[in-house]
Task: structure prediction
Amino acid sequence: MNQIKTILLAGIFFVGLTSTGLAQDSAAEARVLIEKAQASTLGWDLVESLTTEIGPRLAGSDAEERARDWAVARLTDLGFANVHVEPFEMEGWQRGSIALHVGDPYPQRLVATALGGSIGTPVGGITASVVRFATLQDLRDAPLGSLKGKIAFVDGVMTRTQRGSGYGTAVQKRGAGASIAAQRGAMAIVIRSAGTDYHRNAHTGGLRYDDAQPRIPAAALSNNDADQLGRLLKLNAEIELTLSMSSKRIGKVNSGNVIGDIVGSEYPDEIVLLGAHLDSWDEGTGAIDDGTGVAIVTAAAKLVSMHATPKRTIRVVLFGAEEPGLIGARAYLKANSDDMDKIIMVSESDFGTGRIWRMDTGIARADEAKADAILQVLRPLGVLPGGRTASGGSDVSVLSGAGAPAISLGQNGWEYFDLHHTPDDTLDKVDPAALAQNVAVYAAFALMVANAEGGFHAPEKQETAGQ
Result:
């Protein structure tokens, strides 16, 4: 009787596994793949090569073009199929030089960087009194015309969190502050960097000009110098700043997305899309943003092809021009709009090299059991269940917004915004063990999604409404 009970229980367990749509052999393959990926140095080799041979990769620059050539060569050498570039045009920008000084009676230099896309100052710079606003909302509340002939300074410390959620609030002053200040008459704007470090590094990043308002120069102060300026204004509210910037927009330039496939054995037209972005800001060498992402998804897909057989195609898309505003992602959607129904999953690595610790889903409720089965395989790597409103990541949010199913593999971002968009974003900040854990998670995840019975589907509309 006990033997019969054991057989029945084993049968129930087996049915429980297969009823999720994740076959036993796929889970077993994924576990072996995890071991292989954690022992591999391919991820490190790729990020070392990209950041050393190419360095910073400003969107639309010659360096970004060299990075595309690098990516095509690497994907080809690694045996990816259908390797190609999908080109697009964008508005180019050059950083130029910057100098920011406090006038009498406390003359001193402040450390600042131009915000991406900002215009420059007139030759000789701008000298004007500065008005501090504790928050962006305070700037919005200032009367129209009240900043005529002045420089606006928007302060406000970014909150450090594991998920990086403080960035969403802090970055608003960077994106919208210039046009809000211009509407109130400001000649220029400086902001506290959207970052959490206390090294004397300013964080760059893109701004958005409102075409209905004049364009004014915009720069970010290091956190240290934002503190310093705040203290100086308490001593003397009438101090002046002199800002000189030679940044400029340079018209239409070329960029592009690099694409390569690990072709599926049974359903080659169905796509598991793994994304990262190839461009970076030009202050550091773009190691954590997003050289590690490029390395993680490329190495993961290659390791799947070496140690398992994916039934669906695993596509790596290395997007161009993410930093100026997801330009490459929108170009990919436009170029591939007729094939969107073939994408069964999107996920992107674009949050440095912190260990992956949670999995968030943006899929149909009926597919959640498959995601839970995948999560069980990933749990030994420290991955926990997350929420149900995932977009998949930065670039691929454009694709999930257009109806693609998405899963976000969330990394520990506690220290990410210490380095993000600064000169400190360099290879020595990459933790090889954490990088290997990321590669292992992405490889196992990609294989199990590629082999899941029935694939994955977008979440029901009522579940994503209002996101």
